[in-house]
Amino acid sequence: MPPASPSRLAYIDWMRGLACVLMFQTHCYDSWLGGDARKSTFFMWSQLAGTLPAPLFLFLAGISFALVTDKLRQKSLPAAQIAHTTIRRGAEIFGMGLLFRLQEYLIAWGWAPWSDLFRVDILNTIGLSMILMGLLCWIVLATTDGTRLMLGLSTAGVGLTVSLLTPLFWTSWRPRWLPWPLESYINGVHNLDQPQAWLFPIFPWSAFAFIGLAVGFVLLSDWGKRRGAGTFVLAGGGGVVLIYVARWLDHRPQQLYAVYDFWHTSPTFFLIRVGILLLILLATYAWCRWGAGQWGFSPLTQMGQTSLLVYWVHIEFVYGRFSILPKRGQSVRTASLGLLAIFVAMLLLSIARTKLKGRGAAAGAWLGKPARAS
Fold it and tell me: pTM of this prediction?
């Protein structure tokens, strides 16, 4: 499949753009719908679709991390140098997450509580997940032969382990001895004394990044490259198997955990979502290789290339002080028109960012040229 640009694979950008659209609809309907609309089947399905954007972003962060790590590995760079590059990028994303929280607090000055500064949001978790993935790859590369197989098995194992430990860290193994801003990164407790499902702690969310990293190494392996599209078909088939196995496990009368919360901490729901991610990966690859993804301009591919920007900006116009519609008071029709406006505005912003990208560097290079002697 031809890449969207020399450094990007089209299906990754398209899939990230899909995550943006699912995020938009989740946030818009959650912020704006009011009255009976919030009790409707429509809203229920909107919120169910809202369980996918965060796993998609983390899963794709893992795949992209595999691409970068493998590229550095092929340059025969030492493990420490690879780790330095990847961990630094994770730290940058984590820093952006902290900056985003500061921005939101300052914009909402006067009515936002100070504790919002320590909210564990998706950017924080993506950054921390990248740091943890960098550390794991460093250990594997430094202590083994560093094959893609070994990297993939190690990262998949960590992802499954994180999922299995999540119910414990949310209940009986809670690190209550930590200050709540730190414990919140483990289980999302915030300052409310109980883990909060609307936050993005390491347990369980980082598991999606580690699974994405494992999938990325499989796609990059010689075995995966030889099979081409067949690798994606096998991934989709594996996704179907995971969904059925997880549903079977969920219906067993025996339970492994004293407290079982299917929607928020259960490993079975994690496996179901991983299965769905693998099916989306297959569908996206097919769409971008044989479907309309090859026809020309793609809004989803475009937004996928600037997903951080559109995430950063749309929040304030949906949830923030500058919301384009009054909150908790709209019908489905009005909220849908607002969603369309957000989609169009973010697409235009993405296009503008792409067109302007590099112009500053070009201008700087032009200004830096020595004047010719006349």
Answer: 0.92
